[in-house]
Amino acid sequence: MKKSLAEWRKSKGLSQTALADMIGKTQKTISQWETGKTEPYPSDLDKIHAVLKLRQTDHILLPKDLT
Fold this sequence. Notes:
The chain is mainly alpha-helical. The two termini are 18 Å apart. The chain is globular. The protein has helices at 5-11, 16-23, 27-35, 42-52; strands spanning 2-4, 59-61. It has a two-stranded parallel sheet with strand order 1-2.
């Protein structure tokens, strides 16, 4: 399944702040990723996958992927 980071985060009932705390980042960083101002490193995406309990077939779409 493919969803944006914000969609995955919201589907798991997490705020930007909660997700940030769980992966050792700031809320501002999550916001910047979700708006496309910056992109997460692959290691950050691995952490997000683990925290959100996503399957290997689940993909996080970044803003650049949506254009």
